Amino acid sequence: MSTNAGFVFSNDFLTYRFNEDHPFNHKRVLLTKELLETNDTLKEIDIIPPRMATVEELSLFHDNEYIQTVKRAGSGNLSDDEGSEYGLGTEDTPIFPNMHEASSYLVGGTLTAVDEVLGGKRDHALNLGGGLHHGFQKKASGFCIYNDSAVAIKYIRKKYDLKVLYVDTDAHHGDGVQWAFYDDPNVCTFSIHETGRYLFPGTGNVNERGIKSGHGYSFNLPIDAYTQDESFLDVYETAFREIAAFFQPDVIITQNGADAHCFDPLTHLCGTMHIYDRIPLIAHEIAHQYCNGKWIATGGGGYDMWRVVPRAWAQVWNVMKTGEPAKGIIPKEWIAKWQTESPIDLPLFWHDTDEAIPHIPRKAEITEKNSKLLQNLLKYTKIIK
């Protein structure tokens, strides 16, 4: 099944780069794009150039003083003391030249995707440059300067007046987006992530439910460290379907962090490529069930940029474009081009081989804990109904 999908991309995305040693490297987006091109599932006609978000658009969510501070930082006119107040110049989020412009392209990419879908030009749209879900109204955090999803949801509410379901599968809690809409009943947020007992940002407990009129529209599944595919997908798919049935969204935005994989160096989850087949398939199905297919997807985290992220992100596009994930052998042209640069052997197949999957002695215990967590979450949807 071929659908009308759009792939937002520009080489300007690659200018979002902190330093050579930083784990967040947007070369991941280029690697994914070229993998799709060599796999013959991404054509030139599919590619949509992003626009740069304006200050007015950024101000839909971010404080204007913060935006001006980011501008000053990127032009070398911000002291260390001033920067730290805004989360800039930290180990996580160092200052780099023209950071305002680079960040604005990522936000503009997600806004471009929104207009393509909600303007009726495309059924689905993907901006792998986006997904910077830790950004706050007045502060950078966790590699994220501007929060493109929060800006995009504010933009959708203002321009299109639609109910938005935001779904975040990054291993880190989607805190910036959750708090942005914590009191808004027209935006429902759902994040599945590694428990904050062990991992940044330490939030995302199941009892974070929203406040005021937004109470009941925030959902979290803080799954246990070392969770593997079966448990992840069981609790995720069940919760996603229940939440969508409860909320009845007009449009779905998914954040597709690829750091729940067992190879990821910054997290402790133990997924394989199997979850990255299912995650977009479930979103695709639910978007067609409730939203006439209106689905906008972004990238996010993912720090094994050679073996994991290109394959995982490519599957989002493969599902958007063809209705199913790719299988079999990775194109040899892609491997030949990038192997000389990669410090590790590139994967030969779309799916992980058995030897890549770790043995977890606590698997049964972890599965039981996650199942209880799911039941705790589901009782909230029942109460609201």
Termini separation comes to 35 Å
Unreliable stretches: none
Largest sheet: 8 strands, parallel
Indicate the multimeric state: single chain
CATH superfamily: Histone deacetylase domain
Which percent bin holds the helix content? Answer: 25-40%
Number of strands: 8
**Overall 3D shape:** globular
- Rg to the nearest angstrom? 19 Å
CATH class: Alpha Beta
In round numbers, the mean pLDDT is 96
CATH architecture: 3-Layer(aba) Sandwich
List SSEs in N-to-C order: EHEHHHHEHEHEEHEHEHHH
What does this structure look like?
This protein has 385 residues and is α/β, with parallel strands linked by helices. The chain has one domain (5-384): 3-Layer(aba) Sandwich (Arginase, Chain A). Helix content is 39%, strand content 10%. It has helices at residues 27-38, 55-58, 64-74, 80-85, 99-118, 148-159, 175-180, 229-247, 273-290, 309-322, 332-338, 363-384; strands spanning 5-8, 47-48, 124-127, 164-168, 187-194, 218-223, 251-255, 295-298. Strands 2-1-3-8-7-4-5-6 form an eight-stranded parallel beta sheet, sandwiched between helices. It is globular and about 50 Å long. The mean pLDDT is 96.
Secondary structure layout plus pairing:
Blueprint: E1 5-8, H1 27-38, E2 47-48, H2 55-58, H3 64-74, H4 80-85, H5 99-118, E3 124-127, H6 148-159, E4 164-168, H7 175-180, E5 187-194, E6 218-223, H8 229-247, E7 251-255, H9 273-290, E8 295-298, H10 309-322, H11 332-338, H12 363-384
Helix pairs in contact: 1-10, 1-11, 5-6, 8-9, 8-12, 9-10
In short:
The chain has 385 residues and is of the alpha/beta class. The protein has helices at residues 27-38, 55-58, 64-74, 80-85, 99-118, 148-159, 175-180, 229-247, 273-290, 309-322, 332-338, 363-384; strands at residues 5-8, 47-48, 124-127, 164-168, 187-194, 218-223, 251-255, 295-298.
